[in-house]
Amino acid sequence: MEILLEPQAFAQETITVGSTAVGFTAATYKPSGAGAAKRALVTVRGAQIAVAVGGTTPTGSTDGHLWNVGEIWRVVGINDITSFLAIRAGTTGGNIHVTYER
Question: I want to staple 50 with a disulfide (CB 3.0 to 4.6 A). Which of 64, 77, 83, 94 is the partner?
Fold first, then answer.
């Protein structure tokens, strides 16, 4: 029998999203000596961004899923957390606030 537990937040970070694709910080979502994140809760601030997972790099103008300011998204699973990349979608950079859960 499997027992399901509520996800528990264990770390947070704010990441600047500019003209170069950037991912989550490995030392934050997968700390040494502890379990890795199973989910990342992401809030977009400042400007629209484009994101991709699974080995694709977003370009902002033509490739990637568009996330708008104020939206809250979940990135689920260590593979997607590890491969997550974000880049600004227009001429203005912004940031994302991320809470990691396990």
Answer: 64
